[in-house]
Amino acid sequence: MLACDACRIVMNRLSRDVKYLTETRKIWPDEVLDQRLSISCEDPSHPSGSGVEACSLFMEESANLIRKEVKLRWDEASEEFEEDIVAAEFCSEKARICDEDAKGISHMIDEASRKEKLLKEDAKLAVGWSFENMQLLDVSTTCACRDLPPIHPLAAPLLEQKRDTTGRQYRTFVSQAEAGAVPDAVIHQIHLDVAGQTGKAVVNRERQSLREDLVDKSLRQSLSLGADGWAVDSMPSLGDPVPTYVQGCSMMAAMCLGFTAGREEEGFWLFIHLLEDVLGADFFSRQPALVGYHGDRAAVAALVALQSPSLAELMGVQSLGESISALASRCLLSGFVGFLSGPPLVAFWEELLQVRCADFPRLPLISWLAGLVHHAEGQLTSALVGLSSDEAVPVFFRTVQQAAKSLPNNWRPRVRVSQAQVLELRQISKAAAEKYRMAQEALSLKEMHAKNVSASLDRTCSALLDAMKLAEGVGSTSATAAAATVAAESSRGKPTETTPALFCVSS
């Protein structure tokens, strides 16, 4: 590159940044990516800004060009960038100025010591925010140089209350972990969970989950009925060979981190409040898996049928239950993160965290999903006419998803649930969850019985095989002895008692 050595090193580092930004553009908003790139390019005062080693004139004028050139030259099939990522005409024009400016900068030391310094800094950056490791800007690094936005006023008292009431318990866990008292099985589980929630694995798992819910008919073959007759999926989930955190946990945790403006500890306590005080232990239960969630799906279907009777009549119980099941797997487990547009999503979370209904804290999950379906009822009615049950499920999902993305900022669900209906929905959820739990336990017993029968058959087959081998060995020995006896008697000209008449010689 036709620039001074410091600028060349900085540009190479920026190429890695922009590569990661380009790869994640489908996931993160453009304004977030642009802000992150500007931190790397044009903020020499920032401790993690790459511009601190480069010529100020060069960095002030090149940020937009860097971004443009790297995007133009980036090849999706390639794993690396070309080194010369900046336009040649730009370098030719700026190289002389950049080179002269570099001579007057105090940090332009000899090449060897500069490279050593940059390597040490890269090692520090890799721990915090390095794009190369696909990590966000470290919160502690940010706090050191600029103030974070304030915590959401609703979240602050909730997380403080949770920290005060359960802090001792978690401090005990931390002290035990620091003392090395963490079982190997738990460490192995943590490795599995972390590996399943980073990078492209999250996106791939989400796509796979949607594909299974919408396309794979086998996932909708085993359906049991909830308390009110709505479908509750009873497919086995106990045999997962690599159990990890439910995907929605990471999305909800990210939302809690957003409510605390990036403060990790505060976000943790808000997330614990959400899991323990709002969702309850059964919602993300491990075994049987997601008992509370499966109950809430039946409650959503019941409320949709109540709020949109014409839609329920058009689709029928079975088709509506399957469609709600597919929609709930995307919305309930993630708290609508990535599904609702921005302002309605924040409003939903404010209502969820406040726990306005003590009798049924998860009611916002149910009422907002039912309200979203009710909002898209007209579009659904026209889109579902004449479709079969298999065709209706993906069309239903896509229609509601498109409606959710285009909601106005002040949108709220037009679903009013009375106290009596709240108690009824809670009872429906509990009954459906209990039915699902019993079905899973029965399935587990059947699987265990099948394993025992299979093991018993294996033992029986092994015993029979050993007996056959033993019989073959005994038979072979007896036949050899009999043949020897016949040969001996025949040589003397006498038939033996054991010799058959066929072998006797007539006189």
Tell me about this structure:
Helix 1 (5-23) packs across helix 3 (56-73) and helix 7 packs across helix 11 (264-279). The longest helix has 73 residues, at 419-491. This protein has helices at residues 5-23, 30-42, 56-73, 88-103, 111-127, 139-145, 155-178, 184-195, 200-214, 247-259, 264-279, 291-307, 309-315, 317-331, 342-354, 363-375, 377-384, 389-405, 419-491, and strands spanning 223-225, 231-233. It starts with a helix and ends in a 16-residue tail after the last helix. With 507 residues, the chain is mainly alpha-helical. The chain has three domains: 5-145, no CATH class; 155-438, no CATH class; 450-501. The chain is 66% helix and 1% strand. Strands 1-2 form a two-stranded antiparallel ribbon.
In which order are the strands of the major sheet placed?
1-2
Structural class: mainly alpha
Average of per-residue pLDDT values: 70
**How many strands, which pairing sense, and closed or not: the largest β-sheet?**
2 strands, antiparallel
Terminal Cα separation, in Å? 115 Å
The oligomeric state of the chains shown is single chain
Taking pLDDT < 50 over at least 5 consecutive residues as the criterion, the unreliable ranges are: 42-54, 78-109, 122-146, 197-203, 210-244, 498-507
Task: Tell me the total number of β-strands.
Answer: 2
Residues in β-strands, percent: under 5%
Give the count of helical stretches.
19
Summarize the helix and strand pattern as letters. Answer: HHHHHHHHHEEHHHHHHHHHH
User: How many structural domains can be distinguished in the coordinates?
Assistant: 3
- As a whole number of angstroms, the C-alpha radius of gyration is 34 Å
Helix content: 55-70%
- Coarse morphology: elongated
